[in-house]
Amino acid sequence: WANRHLHLIAQKLYLSNEEDVHQMHSLLAEYFLGAWSGGRKKIFTYDNNHFTSLNISHHKNPHHQQSHEKTSSDKYSYDRQTPEQPWVFQCNLLEPDIFFVNHRKMIELVYHLTRSGRTDDLMFGVIMNFSWLYTMIKIGQFEKAITDIDLAYSYTQEKELKFLATTLRSIKVKVLKNPASLSAELQQRLLPVVTSL
Fold it and tell me: Do 114 and 99 contact (CB within 8 A), yes or no?
């Protein structure tokens, strides 16, 4: 921040309550997961007192349903029209090697999921997601992928994550030389374990 006071004021206004911080991280994680994209509607709750504090009468609110009952809050659902958040943006489906990485999702999703405590989404939406892992390796972020897996392990203590990190370290040389071999290398190492279960 250019102005130190601006940072302190923002911290005091928006980040002083741990529950609010947790909710902000959760909302940002939902955005990057695409929870409300593709026409899915999100419930919007507002307090009628909010309109009073802003000096807006109820008849000016186009979404307000006229009723004789006094309710403290109303709920509506809206399509927020948020865009999909893929791992990569393909320019031409016929040329799969030409793509643009969604860097914000790659970097921020793990951070927001860990800070919001959404361990299931972290494990199955990111860390155990082949598309995420393949994209990380394809863009030269193998070590960052291992770091993210270790971070997820520190939050969840899931033994599968430790096993995945160990497996990836053992195939590092082959995968860095040829990222397309990731699927075959993982299957070769994981199949014996899965069949023994």
Answer: no
Same domain, 117 and 154: yes
Tokens 């893929």 -> residue: 86
Question: In this predicted model, what pLDDT tens digit does every residue of 155-183 receive, in sequence order?
Answer: 888 888 999 999 999 999 999 999 999 99
Amino acid, single-letter form, for residue 182:
L
Which amino acid is located at 40 in the chain?
R
71 within some domain: yes
Distance between CA atoms of 127 and 28, rounded to whole angstroms? 17
> Which pLDDT score is estimated for 67?
40
Question: Does 118 or 69 have the greater pLDDT score?
Answer: 118
User: Is 69 among the domain residues?
Assistant: yes
Buried b / exposed e over 79-88, threshold 16 CB at 10 Å, is eeeeeebebb
pTM: 0.72
Q: What is the number of other CB atoms lying within 10 angstroms of the CB of residue 121?
A: 19
